[in-house]
Write a structure and sequence with these properties.
The structure holds two protein chains of two kinds. By secondary structure, chain A is mainly β. Chain A is built from no helices and eleven strands. The N and C termini of chain A lie far apart (about 35 Å). By secondary structure, chain B is mainly beta. In chain B, about 0% of the residues lie in helices and about 55% in strands. In chain B, about 40% of the residues are buried. The chains are: A mainly beta, B mainly beta. The interface between A and B is medium-sized, with 25 and 25 residues.
């Protein structure tokens, strides 16, 4: 059981560069989301999706884009990296969101210099 | 607005019992979840309460009082491996009951 597969594990970017964080789940979950986690800030929702073709913004969407062309994949794009985007990013999926059990990817530690 | 409050740190010894509290403020209520996160790891689901009372799962139990907008996670027979951060999370309101907002987490240190 792969669960939620998130890549890469680590990434260093220069300011202004763009990149895509990949996330795939094999549980046929409807709901997928991206969080960032900063020290002392808990988990903050960036974007989420309730199904293929449907995405919406979370608490901190600026500087990030998402798309959901298939049920399985939910990539997160950083358009022009800034030092403020240095963080740990988690992708998660669950059957229908809310309080249904969320399964998380292993996380991506991103440093923007 | 919507918010959750939980203590930032708790310390206990092996074999003891510890309670981690969470108070929430939301528009409507759609359940309270708890997650565990070890350092450097991903959050993992522990429990979910939709109704008042205690839900028990092995050494861990979770309690909810909707009238007090309050819940807690109870960890019994503490082990060193329970050292981790614990997060409570709730959907923010009726229009957004598929999202979750998260507390800032409680760091639990279990000492020998």
């Amino acid at each position: 059981n792969a669960g939620v597969t998130q890549t890469p594990k680590f990434q260093v970017l220069k300011t202004g560069q763009s990149m895509t964080l990949q996330c795939a789940q094999d549980m046929n979950h409807e709901y997928m989301s991206w969080y960032r986690q900063d020290p002392g800030m808990g988990l903050r929702l960036i974007h989420y999706s309730v199904g293929a073709g449907i995405t919406d913004q979370g608490e901190v969407p600026n500087g990030y884009n998402v798309s959901r062309s298939t049920t399985e994949d939910f990539p997160l794009r950083l358009l022009s990296a800034a030092p403020s985007q240095t963080s740990v990013y988690f992708c998660a999926s669950s059957y229908r969101g809310g309080n249904t059990e969320a399964f998380f990817g292993q996380g991506t530690r991103l440093t923007v210099v | 607005g919507q918010s959750l409050e939980q203590p930032s740190e708790v310390t206990a010894v092996e074999g003891a019992i510890v309670q981690i509290n969470c108070t929430y403020q939301t528009s409507g209520f759609y359940g309270l979840s708890w997650y565990q996160q070890h350092d450097g790891g991903a959050p993992t689901f522990l429990s979910y309460n939709a109704l008042d009372g205690l839900e028990e799962t092995g050494r861990f139990s979770s309690f909810l009082s909707r009238s007090d907008s309050y819940g807690y996670l109870l960890l019994q027979e503490l082990q060193m491996k329970d050292s981790a951060s614990y997060f409570c999370a709730v959907p923010p309101n009726a229009g957004n009951n598929r999202k979750l907002i998260w507390g800032l987490g409680t760091s639990l240190a279990v000492n020998p």
